[in-house]
């Protein structure tokens, strides 16, 4: 029955989005449309592309419904909360300003001021206004959203407080985009303070439950950068949590994670990270695929700066640029340029400059080699 009810809610939300002008003209109350939006957002968190595409039109429908609502509608606290959540979901500050001008005792003044400041991008003003607002004292559907907003404006000043608020957001809004966003932000906060175990736990929760979310691709680079920032044994040992977490995911997700880590490691010059994860991604990729081309590129980008230069050159030569995205084509060009510089004999080197057997390398050539590597590092850094 629960699945059927959810399916009905999604169908209703989709039909409301398709018939948005009619809904507003028919006087559909804002809170009813907001319920449809929340159901739709649940499907976005689950990876439903149709729900993602329907969301903007439903937001516009809610905006029209709010503008057309009668004065009597604002006696219903559900409609007032709908305005608040609509604004915080991307509807912008204007409905909140009109609500403030009309006057209402359905929302605490500090909450209304903080929400207006947040939607206007005035985070410090929002932080001050919301300081005394307890999300746990609000209705659950509102409290989770406010906890997330408070966490977002607290992150810079008090990361520990932000982390606690994100816990509250997850508690009050399980299975929603609120929880999805909270998990992503908490994982990043944990990595920032070097808390590997908590980072692994939160990331594992995220990828097990929200790996198909429309926002998961944006989290991948953050996750990869965090993993690369930890010491190499953290991902090399099968006993480490992050390794067992990745191993328990489906093949496509494992491959995507290994590729993201390998790319971040290659650009950061973390050879061990890049080679290990690129090899694991390659093992999960078929020959001639874009994923295999990416895995070979990331491994080659670091191998050419090691004693396995020839192996790296071979991998570079085998990468089909047509299979790569634009950013990875830039990386391929950078790696190819570096490979040429590393084995390039200086044009002004005197004849017979090769060192005699048993002698050390020419100091001048060593300096040139370091310079070439430094130039390549700068080029690779520009790709981040």
Fold blueprint:
Elements: H1 2-18, H2 20-25, H3 30-45, H4 49-68, H5 77-91, H6 94-102, H7 109-119, H8 123-130, H9 140-154, H10 159-172, H11 177-192, H12 196-210, H13 216-229, H14 233-236, H15 241-247, H16 251-268, H17 271-283, H18 290-303, H19 309-318, H20 326-342, H21 363-381
Helix pairs in contact: 1-3, 1-4, 3-4, 3-5, 4-5, 5-6, 5-7, 7-8, 8-9, 9-10, 10-11, 11-12, 11-13, 12-15, 13-16, 16-17, 16-18, 17-18, 18-19, 18-20, 20-21
Account of the 3D structure:
The protein has helices at 2-18, 20-25, 30-45, 49-68, 77-91, 94-102, 109-119, 123-130, 140-154, 159-172, 177-192, 196-210, 216-229, 233-236, 241-247, 251-268, 271-283, 290-303, 309-318, 326-342, 363-381. It has 21 helices and no strands. Helix 5 packs antiparallel against helix 6, helix 13 (216-229) packs across helix 16 (251-268) and helix 16 packs parallel to helix 18. The longest helix has 20 residues, at 49-68. Among the domains are: 1-73 and 80-87, no CATH class; 249-350 and 359-384. The chain has 384 residues and is mainly alpha-helical.
Q: How far from one another are the termini?
A: 48 Å
Average pLDDT score: 84
Q: Helical content, roughly?
A: over 70%
In the predicted model, the low-confidence regions spanning at least 5 consecutive residues are 1-26, 351-355, 357-363
Order of helices and strands: HHHHHHHHHHHHHHHHHHHHH
Total of DSSP H or I helical runs spanning 4+ residues: 21
Which structural category fits the helices and strands?
A: mainly alpha
**Any idea what the shape is?**
elongated
Q: How many strand segments?
A: 0
Rg over alpha carbons:
27 Å
Major β-sheet annotation:
none
Please state roughly what percent of the residues sit in beta strands, choosing from under 5%, 5-15%, 15-25%, 25-35%, 35-45% or over 45%.
under 5%
């Amino acid at each position: 029955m629960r699945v059927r009810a959810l399916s009905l809610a999604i169908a209703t939300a989709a039909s409301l989005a398709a018939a948005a002008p009619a809904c507003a003209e028919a006087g559909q109350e804002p809170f009813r449309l907001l319920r449809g939006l929340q159901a739709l957002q649940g499907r976005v968190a689950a990876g439903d592309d149709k729900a993602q595409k329907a969301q903007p039109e439903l937001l516009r429908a809610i905006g029209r419904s709010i503008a057309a609502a009668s004065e009597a509608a604002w006696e219903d606290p559900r409609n007032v909360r709908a305005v608040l959540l609509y604004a915080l979901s991307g509807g912008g500050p204007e409905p909140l300003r009109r609500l403030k001008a009309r006057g209402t005792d359905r929302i605490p003044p500090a909450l209304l001021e903080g929400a207006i400041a947040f939607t206007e991008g005035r985070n410090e003003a929002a932080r001050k206004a919301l300081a005394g607002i307890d999300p746990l004292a609000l209705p659950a559907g509102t409290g989770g959203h406010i906890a997330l907003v408070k966490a977002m404006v607290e992150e810079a000043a008090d990361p520990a407080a932000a982390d606690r608020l994100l816990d509250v957001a997850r508690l009050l809004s399980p299975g929603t985009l609120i929880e999805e966003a909270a998990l992503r932000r908490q994982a990043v906060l944990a990595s920032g303070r070097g808390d590997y175990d908590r980072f692994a736990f939160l990331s594992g929760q995220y990828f097990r439950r929200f790996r198909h979310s429309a926002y998961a691709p944006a989290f991948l680079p953050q996750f990869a950068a965090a993993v690369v920032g930890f010491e190499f044994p953290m991902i090399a040992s099968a006993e480490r949590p992050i390794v067992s977490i990745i191993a328990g995911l489906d093949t496509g997700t494992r491959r995507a994670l290994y590729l993201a880590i390998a790319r971040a490691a290659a650009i950061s010059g973390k050879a061990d990270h890049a080679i290990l994860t690129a090899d694991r991604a390659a093992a999960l990729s078929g020959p001639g695929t874009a994923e295999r081309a990416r895995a070979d590129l990331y491994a080659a980008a670091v191998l050419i700066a090691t004693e396995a230069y020839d192996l790296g050159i071979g991998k570079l030569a085998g990468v089909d640029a047509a299979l790569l995205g634009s950013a990875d084509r830039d990386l391929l060009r950078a790696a190819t340029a570096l490979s040429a510089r590393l084995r390039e004999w200086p044009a002004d080197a005197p004849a017979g400059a090769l060192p005699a057997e048993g002698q050390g390398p020419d100091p001048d050539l060593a300096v040139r080699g370091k310079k070439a590597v430094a130039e390549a590092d700068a080029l690779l850094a520009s790709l981040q």
